[in-house]
C-alpha cells in the first residue's frame, strides 16, 4: 500500500509548503468573502444593532417618562385625596354643628310648647275652678236656702234675702277654712 506521504516524497514536494495556485485561490475567495461581508452583511448587522440600541434606549426613556408621569399622577391623587378628606371632615363638622343647632331649636320649641300648654292648662283649670266654685255656690245656696227654710220654718223665697243668707254662709265657711289652714 502506497500512502500519500510516499507519493509526495517521491515527487520531491514538501508537504508543509502549499502550492502557489492554492494560495491564490484561497486569497481570492477570502477577498470576495471579505467584500461581501463588509458590503452587505456588516451594514445589515450594524443597522440591526443600531435599531435595537435605539429601541432599548427609547423604551428606557419611555419607561422613565411613564414613571415620572405615574409619580406626578400619584402625587396629584394624594393631594386630591387629602383635599377630599379635609372637605369630608368639614362637612362632617358642619353636619354636627347643624345637628346640635337643630336639637337646640327643637328643645327650645318643646320648652315653648310646654310652657304654652302649661299656661293654657292653668287658664283652663282656673276657669273650671271658677265655674266649679260658682256652681257649688249656686248649689250650696239652693241647698242652704232650702235647709234654712226647713229649719226656720218659714219660706225664704225672697231672692235678695236668700242671696244674703247664702253669702253669709259661704263667707263663714271660707273664714273657717282659712283659720284651719293657718293653724
TrEMBL record:
Keyword annotations for this protein, in alphabetical order, are: ATP synthesis, Cell membrane, CF(0), Coiled coil, Hydrogen ion transport, Ion transport, Membrane, Transmembrane, Transmembrane helix, Transport
This protein's source sits in the domain of life called Bacteria
Q: Where in the cell is it found?
A: Cell membrane
Extract the Pfam families matched here. Answer: ATP-synt_B
Name the InterPro entries for this protein: ATP_synth_B-like_membr_sf, ATP_synth_b/b'su_bac/chlpt, ATP_synth_F0_bsu_bac, ATP_synthase_B_chain
TM ranges are: 20-42
Membrane topology per the entry is: Single-pass membrane protein
UniProt keyword Coiled coil present:
yes
SUPFAM superfamilies with a match to the protein in the record: F1F0 ATP synthase subunit B, membrane domain
Question: Which ranges of the sequence are coiled-coil?
Answer: 56-94
Gene3D superfamilies xrefs: F1F0 ATP synthase subunit B, membrane domain
UniProt cross-references to HAMAP family, sorted A to Z: ATP_synth_b_bprime
Q: What does this protein do?
A: Component of the F(0) channel, it forms part of the peripheral stalk, linking F(1) to F(0). F(1)F(0) ATP synthase produces ATP from ADP in the presence of a proton or sodium gradient. F-type ATPases consist of two structural domains, F(1) containing the extramembraneous catalytic core and F(0) containing the membrane proton channel, linked together by a central stalk and a peripheral stalk. During catalysis, ATP synthesis in the catalytic domain of F(1) is coupled via a rotary mechanism of the central stalk subunits to proton translocation.
Task: Read off the NCBIfam families from this record.
Answer: ATP_synt_b, PRK05759.1-3
**According to its UniProt record, which protein family does this protein belong to?**
Belongs to the ATPase B chain family.
Q: Its quaternary structure?
A: F-type ATPases have 2 components, F(1) - the catalytic core - and F(0) - the membrane proton channel. F(1) has five subunits: alpha(3), beta(3), gamma(1), delta(1), epsilon(1). F(0) has three main subunits: a(1), b(2) and c(10-14). The alpha and beta chains form an alternating ring which encloses part of the gamma chain. F(1) is attached to F(0) by a central stalk formed by the gamma and epsilon chains, while a peripheral stalk is formed by the delta and b chains.
Protein name (database record)? ATP synthase subunit b
